Amino acid sequence: MSETTRLHIDIYLATSELIKQRVSQLSREQLEWKPAPEKWSIKEIIAHLVDASFVHAVRIRKIVAENGNEFLLYDQDAWVASSRANQSELNDILLAFDAILAYNALFYGRLTDEQWERKGNNNGKEISIADLFQGFIRHVQTHLLQIGRNLDALGVK
């Protein structure tokens, strides 16, 4: 594995620590509070990242193994609603996130340069594994901002 790939994988794995740092001092009430009935609580946001990690794992493996098939699509709001994440312990959700990240990191570490550039089809747009990888990191950042908005609405600094 190249030094650049190792660095990128470290950044990928660090997304979990960023989430943990952001939510470590929050109460159960703060973690489960929703800004509106149709909006997600912080626990639901993190559970969504677990779901997104599952889907991400399937997508990258389908590109490598099946050479560019259509991406698995899903209704994220329906997945979050059906997960009942607010009835789960935050630590259990975070453990699942860590496990999937670790397993995907192992897979990423075994990819060849050619495989990083392989593409899959996402609603008519070709996306490479490298793009998916960077997109996942950006996705976590987007949801960290969402967590911040929830906390701002609660008046938590």
UniProtKB/TrEMBL annotation:
It comes from the Bacteria. It holds the Pfam family DinB_2. InterPro entries: DinB-like, DinB/YfiT-like. Gene3D superfamilies: dinb family like domain. Residues 18-147 form the DinB-like domain. This is DinB-like domain-containing protein.
